Amino acid sequence: MIRLNTYTLPALCMAGALWTASVSAENLPEPIGHVARVEGAAYISSRGHTNAAKVGQAIVPGVALSTGAEGALGVILGDGSVLSFGPHSELTLDDYRFAPARDELRLRATLNRGTLNLISGDMARLDPQAIAVETPQGRVRVRGGQVLMKVNP
User: Fold this and answer.
1) Number of domains forming the structure of the chain
2) CA–CA dist 33, 2 (Å, integer)
3) What are the pLDDT digits (tens) for 62-97?
4) DSSP string over 40-83
5) Measuring CA to CA, which residue among 102, 107, 50 is closest to residue 78?
6) Is residue 108 part of a domain?
7) Is 3 contained in some domain?
8) Full-model pTM
9) What are the phi and psi torsion angles at 101 (to 5°)?
């Protein structure tokens, strides 16, 4: 029989809360970048939730980034790549891997509508084939430098 005293119960509750928090944290993907600029209506959607974007907010693979009629959004990824969106834009960051030591270099995104200004970082310098953006009309490979794209809905 386990005997609980006034010290045991709070300790057990705290241990349970820490274990729950650690299990929840393990399910979250590692951040791959952050929001650098927000103007007007800009949103980040992940795991079925949509929130207003905030400067400094972490970006993880699989997020959808969108802007409203007067919105603009700027994101900096781990390799120094910069993604800037104008009004009425929607992009899903499908896959991002920047681990040069393991030879894992990949940026895949889907621009569904709006404008994207992509300034490539170290990834394109290390592997010119690593960056691709899908659009409803086709795929754009970014081999380095800067690309400005516009997709009409």
Assistant:
1) 1
2) 48
3) 999 999 999 999 999 999 999 999 999 999 999 999
4) SSEEEEETTEEEE--TT-EE-TT-EEEE-TT-EEEEEETTS-EE
5) 107
6) yes
7) no
8) 0.80
9) -65, -30
